[in-house]
Amino acid sequence: MLSPTPVDLTAIEFENTFVRELPADPVLTNVPRPVRNASYTRVEPTPVPAPRLLGWSDDVGAMLGIARPLSPTGPAVEVLGGNRVLAGMQPYAARYGGHQFGHWAGQLGDGRAITLAETVSTRGERYELQLKGAGLTPYSRTADGRAVLRSSVREFMCSEAMHHLGVPTTRALSLVATGATVVRDMFYDGNPEAEPGAVVCRVAPSFVRFGNFQILTAHKELDTLKLLADYVITTHYPELGTPCKEVYALWFEEICRRTALMIVDWMCVGFVHGVMNTDNMSILGLTIDYGPYGWLEGYDPSWTPNTTDAEGRRYAYGNQPQIAHWNLLQLANALYPLIEDKVPLENALAIYADVFQSGWQAALDEKLGLSAPARPDDIQLKDDLFELLAAVETDFTLFFRLLATVPMDATLSDSALIEPLRRAFYSDAAFASAHVTRLAEWLRRYIARVQQEPAPARVERMNRVNPKYVLRNYLAQLAIDALTEGDASVMERLMSVLQHPYDEQPQHDELSERRPEWARHKPGCSALSCSS
Ligand code: AMP
Ligand code: MG
């Protein structure tokens, strides 16, 4: 099917199935308050002084059939900044709760996100357009409903980068400066500062989270629970059939499966979400809510980008698979009233563990270029590799990418064997003879395992799954710094390179290098606070 020519946002047709099919908050006053017996509150974005387009995703625009705005301040940008609601849009903030850092937090909800409407893509798929940073809602609690430019740039760039890596994720259409400042205490050290504000237009088939169900069960609003489950199944899981007890169970199983596959993808590309609270878990198995996320640089399973989590490390890289399981268990509790039988729920949680384990092992086989059939000592080979990567500071992304360039000649000297991996090491300890010997010994075992397969095929396979370019934390910060000074070129170049993360693109080699030392402790370049 030929895609129709993209048109201006103001000429698009909108639908509002979520609003139409689910119970609305009967109260309309837009002040922070507890909401009961509803899945959402109708609320409009709060206008901003001077909306100005800073970023646009042509890819998402093409998917939705929406043309890049001709003017950075025209009518489409007014919509994307929250200053104008188009005919056919019925904006709302969703009601949800969640477990934050392992504790039930009660009502959270869209405190600064407002869904404008739904639109059907050029391929017939339904997408929500949601503004993040669009102003106060009844769910804003004590916060201001706004978002700073730095966190908005990070969400805008990372959701697109993740998509192009092949990871299921929400998308981003636009980034709009508001012309207003937002006050944030970035380091939580009692020094709040005014920072530029922004609004991102996020795009996903649905932004429903585990927490949208949890809040309903927590308040025993079981009629609404059933309505929401039926809506999500019929709209987003129609292949499962007409909702009934069995279908709810199958649905939960499918959520477990999708979540497992998403986590496998995160682990493969070295993505650390940073705030895996149950309100940040998508019911569609998408990566959602880009906050203090980060990319593994030196491989360290206990690394977390989130300074708020530095003590407990609950959301560290290596914990993500177990945390997703724990979050699914909370969702199982929320869905129990629909199923009233814990056996299928427990089975589905076991399926999560199986799908994750087999998916992760298969993904590692791809990353290493190990051909089928599996050998009995493959697992040992993989386990030993991770021990080596953790032993000295080794860049996760570069190591796997460069592994494909190691000559498959076990007779080479130890130092000649590890030479192609040199760029992956942050620390001189890598070149101490004990580590060189161990790594070379591992490489010889690896060579013996993969030698049978013709090199070009193996290298091609590995390069398809080991990205050369990821959104390293310091690169995102460089884009933010330039944009704050009015220069969008750094962000634009980075986003265009990240559209093809598995391609060599030799003219952009420097964007694939390991984090420079100046960035090691610089704010935003390695660790981040939740302040956004
Ligand atoms: P998060 O963990 O950042 O996804 O957010 C947790 C909750 O806080 C969600 O309900 C958000 O909508 C809300 N929230 C975060 N930042 C703000 C803000 N600046 N204004 C209003 N609500 C916010
Ligand atoms: Mg959130």
DSSP E strands, number: 12
Largest sheet: 6 strands, antiparallel
Rg to the nearest angstrom? Answer: 24 Å
Structural domains: how many: 4
Which oligomeric state applies?
single chain
Low-pLDDT runs of 5+ residues are none
How does the helix and strand content classify structurally? alpha+beta
Morphology: globular
Ligand roster: adenosine monophosphate, magnesium ion
Cα separation of the termini: 41 Å
Average pLDDT, to the nearest integer?
A: 96
What fraction of residues sit in β-strands?
5-15%
Number of helices: 16
State the share of residues found in helices, binned by percent. 25-40%
Please write the string of helix (H) and strand (E) elements: HEEHHEEEEEEHEEHHHEEHHHHHHHHH
Question: Could you describe the 3D structure shown?
Answer:
By secondary structure, the protein is an alpha+beta fold. The chain folds into 4 domains: about 200 residues, no CATH class; about 130 residues, no CATH class; about 80 residues, no CATH class; about 45 residues, no CATH class. The strands form 4 sheets. Strands 2, 6, 7, 8, 9 and 10 form a 6-stranded antiparallel beta sheet that branches. A two-stranded antiparallel sheet has the order 1-3. β6 and β7 form a beta hairpin. The model has no long low-confidence stretch (mean pLDDT about 95). Helix content is about 40%, strand content about 15%. It starts with 16 loop residues before the first helix and ends in a 35-residue tail after the last helix. The longest helix has 27 residues. The protein binds adenosine monophosphate and magnesium ion (MG). The site of magnesium ion has 3 residues, from loops.
